[in-house]
Design a protein that fits this description.
With 161 residues, the protein is of the alpha+beta class. 25% of the residues lie in helices and 43% in strands. It is built from 3 helices and 11 strands, in the order αβββββαββββαββ. Strands 3, 4, 5, 6, 7, 8 and 9 form a 7-stranded mixed sheet that branches.
């Protein structure tokens, strides 16, 4: 029987080490996401993530989406490519003032459900071409009693669904 070449043994070891590191990071990130969110039946608590923002997982048109909680955004916004992938119907165009200046986008309609049971059906959402991550705006957040203490955002749900 022939022995494997030394370079192949080394490559295999490095690939296995790389795989172990990759899986470890994936597990750590999944645990981090779970620890950032809790629901006690009365409200939702979201802990600030390592990037300094609050993230709220939900579903948009049936697909899981992680929203950045943005109390400075008037409306909920998503990247245009996500709106296209989800097949959300366009009902108009809009000019939106962003940190990068005024941009033109589309108004689309979608059903939103956030972890903890918050729902917004037929929500008018702004789809912007240069947006990198979905933003949860005050059109949804303004309906919910928010309280921030230290690095925890508490949303009382008492009847809001």
């Amino acid at each position: 029987m022939h022995e494997l070449p030394g370079w192949l043994k080394h490559a295999t070891v490095w690939l296995l080490l790389g795989l172990m590191v990759f899986l470890g990071v994936q597990t750590w990130q999944a645990r981090e996401r779970q620890m950032r969110f809790s629901f006690d039946g009365q409200g939702v608590e979201i802990r600030r993530s390592a990037d300094g923002h609050y993230h709220w997982v939900g579903r948009l048109a049936g697909r899981e989406v992680e929203f950045l909680v943005d109390t400075g955004a008037t409306s909920t916004a998503i990247p245009s490519r996500l709106a296209d992938e989800l097949g959300l119907p366009t009902v108009g165009v809009v000019q939106s003032a962003t940190a990068g200046g005024v941009v033109q986008g589309r108004v689309v309609i979608g059903d939103l459900e956030l972890a903890g049971g918050v729902r917004a059906e037929r929500l008018r959402i702004t789809a912007l071409p240069q947006l990198h991550a979905p933003l949860l705006g005050m059109d949804v957040l303004g309906r919910l009693p928010l309280q921030q203490e230290r690095s925890v955002l508490r949303i009382e749900l008492g009847g809001v669904r």
